[in-house]
Amino acid sequence: MSYLRKNIADMTGYVPGFQPTDEFSWVKLNTNENPYPPSPQVIKAIQDATGEDLRKYPDAPSRAGREAAAELYGYPVEWVIMANGSDELLNNLIRACAGEGEEIAYLHPSYSYYSTLAEIQGAKVKTFSLKESGEIEGFPERYTGKLFFLTNPNAPLGLRWGIEEVAALADRCAGLLVVDEAYADFSEGNCLELVRQKSNVVVTRTLSTSYSLAGMRLGLAIARPEIIAALDKIRDHYNLDRLAQTAVAAALIDQDYLQSCVERICATREWFSAELVKLGYKVIPSSANYLFAAPADRNGKRIYDALFERKILVRYFSDPVLSHGLRISIGTREEMEKTLQALSEIG
Ligand SMILES: Cc1ncc(COP(=O)(O)O)c(C=O)c1O
Q: Is 80 helix (H, G, I), strand (E, B) or coil?
């Protein structure tokens, strides 16, 4: 007899991108990390917070971070919640809205962790196919599932939908439309305004990529106060530790630093994309800090293995709709030059 719930015993679990232990000997372009350090103000704030105060619990409602986010995004503080990575919010949204046997949906390909989180909850999962053109196949006039997750910009393809298209999708959802904007800071627009306009829209953000804080585990959501209140009941009451709370407030305030990092990464992305095309790759125009590129022979694994041998790590997905290409995170200009050199040698 197993002590475990059947769905937990049966599930495979999510496999995150490989984090090598000797990470500094790699060009690491596989998990969409930011190649630049966090803002100096964030480092200083964390250093100042590593004192004897650590013996005390953190502020349970994470007020400083929520206030900074509310100010930045132009929402009342009751519309904002902080989390230990945006993954925590995705998890708690499913826990809040989809009971056992109820359905959630997302696009395939996109962030497959939604599926893992739904399996834990015992919820059913439906996927709608996404074409490389951005067309969504088979989305019904009225989707009656409890939640629909739209990764915008899409991961791993990098393409994005404009606010009108997302508003139209929201109107077709009977349940919540969660717009996962993990990469929106690298894009021309976002859907934050929809939270005000549509009662069923939630926007989630992460500080992992654009703010270079993947190691601190920080995310946030903007939603109607009744949804935030529900998420607040579910979360671990001290979900953000003292250092993370200090970091998030300092990071959100330093918008100049954010903008300078984002501009550099987007410029490198556009240059790298054009160079890949010259090498014969098919590249999907990207609104994120990575791009999806396929070699002419559509053999992503061949390129992945050859880059791996040269200690360059990118993301290969064995999923048949993605195996023809690779997701390559945008690193520094030097890292991308090294990658291009390797790709031209590999041929
Ligand atoms: C689409 C998407 N959403 C959410 C996350 C999770 O971000 P966080 O680091 O804030 O948990 C990721 C990270 O890979 C992601 O790709």
A: strand
